Amino acid sequence: MYSHMLLNDYETIYPCPFSKGYGIPSQQAWLFLKIFLFYRVFLASLLILLYQSPFSEILISTKHLQLYNATSLVYLILGLVFIFFAFWRVGPYSLNAQSIIFIDIIVITLIMHSCGGISSGFGILLAGSLAASGLLIGGRCSIVFAAIATIFIFSEQIYSIHLGKGLVRSYPTVGMLGATFFITAFLSYVLAQRSEQSAALANKQQQKIVTLEALNKYVIQHLQSGVIIINPKQQILSINETALDLFQAQSSLELADISAPLALLFDSWQRNPRQDFFTLQSPQKANLHLRFNLLMTENQAFYMIMLEDVALHNQRLQQGVLASLGRLTASIAHEIRNPLSAITHAAQLLSENLELNPQDIRLTEIIIEHSGRVNKIITDILKSSKRTPSNRKELRLNIFLNTYLHDFLAEQAINETYLHLELCDINLETRIDVGHLQQIMDNLCHNAIKYGSPEKGGVIIRLSHLKTTPIIDVIDNGKLLDSDTITHLFEPFFTTSTTGTGLGLYLSRELAELNQASLTYRVNNLKNNSFRLQLSNAKNTKIEL
């Protein structure tokens, strides 16, 4: 009834050519076989003791004492040999199991014959061996052995009658014993089949549990938030990679070894469980948001510590606020656009009036000019409110930047000396929405050419890396920004130009954060303006919740 299994946990066993089914674990199969072998050694020992006892003359025919004695000794010796085979796994499981049952049929038939035939009652011992065959080999195969056992006892009865020792009236007894063999084999078949189904179901459930456990472990290990599981003695039971990175520590068994201040905060929380939120500074000078939770089980209590960079936490809150403001401003923009269109149209019609004096014509030009500027602001607002979700995919930055620079110069009809590309020696990859990256680069390059004095040396687009993090710097030779401008640089509608809308850098930073990247302003070593886009590594598998 058993089929093949994996060699490390199971072994390929084909106990019977008539068997089909799910298979049993190798360890379990060999264990059952060992138990049955010990039973056979015990039975052989009892048979030998019976030969030595005063009852031997009553139970054993005097003409077959030697046959009985020799058969019992051989049975014992073979039992010990097969125990050795079972413990050391000598030979295939199927060959061992089938040989044992076949030997039992021969030996017990000989013992029955030496004790007077079917009337001795020893034939019933075959029922136990046949029942064991159903568990050891398979239900269908046990029926085959039941047929063999029935043939043997009928042959013994015929032989005894031929010698003049058997009685014809014993045939019904032989028939009933044979029927008992088949009933036992059938029940063994049913029991084995149910056992196999239960084992298969248990194995399937176990595999499902193992798979879910592996998935849970993977998710926890790759969360952006740090997770630490400890027991009441502050011994670490589980810690993910993010928590180790936040504290720049190696895996340890004690919470204090990871962070002594964290252990002190945990003690403080245990004394006052109502306060479960704390702030802690990491070795990287980043503020961490901590939360402690009690995990109760039936037998023991555990504690979970959640760690999150406050900057990431605030970023999520800010994104939620900005999303709400984006929807609000989009609604306002829609309402403004309709009357603005009417004003622009009216100003255009008014400017066509030939009776207007030059001063009135100039006023209509001002109306049209500033209406266009307001319309551009509205268009940018609507673009920001209609951003599609980031469709991130792996991108080779060296190839992308080469293509981007060529297309940008061609589309904008810009002098080639105004833009220079500097690539690193290695191929850097990131995961980002290509459309979003192109929009960010457009904003940065337009600003660099507009405000960065490209005639003094050109704008540099430099690709580099910090450890495994890809970085794109857009460097210009323009006037360095003052501290007040830097403070408000990425705020919406902040601009130092009379014609700008103040949304370019704001949208660029929003798109960067949408792709798990960051856009910052810095002054490089050569005292040049530099806008740095720090991208995520393509191999990064951190899960953001």
What does this structure look like?
This protein has helices at residues 26-52, 56-59, 65-88, 93-114, 125-136, 139-162, 171-221, 241-247, 255-258, 260-271, 310-351, 358-385, 397-412, 434-451, 483-488, 504-514, and strands spanning 226-230, 236-239, 277-281, 287-296, 301-309, 393-396, 419-422, 429-432, 459-466, 469-476, 518-523, 529-534. The chain has 545 residues and is α+β, with helices and mostly antiparallel strands. The chain has 4 domains: 26-210, no CATH class; 221-310, Beta-Lactamase; 313-385, Orthogonal Bundle (Helix Hairpins); 393-534, Histidine kinase-like ATPase, C-terminal domain (Heat Shock Protein 90), CATH 3.30.565. A 5-stranded antiparallel β-sheet has the order 2-1-5-4-3. α4 runs antiparallel to α5, α4 packs parallel to α6 and α14 runs antiparallel to α16. It is elongated and about 150 Å long. The two termini are 48 Å apart.
Strand order of the largest sheet: 2-1-5-4-3
* Count of structural domains: 4
Mean pLDDT: 82
Radius of gyration: 44 Å
Query: Helices and strands, in N-to-C order?
Result: HHHHHHHEEHHHEEEHHEHEEHEEHHEE
Distance between the termini: 48 Å
What class, by secondary structure content?
alpha+beta
What percentage of the residues does DSSP assign to strands (E)?
Answer: 5-15%
Compute the number of strand runs.
12
Number of helices: 16
How can the largest sheet be summarized?
5 strands, antiparallel
Q: Low-confidence stretches at least 5 residues in length (pLDDT < 50)? A: 1-15, 17-23
Task: Give the CA-based shape.
Answer: elongated
Measured as a percent range, the helix fraction is 55-70%
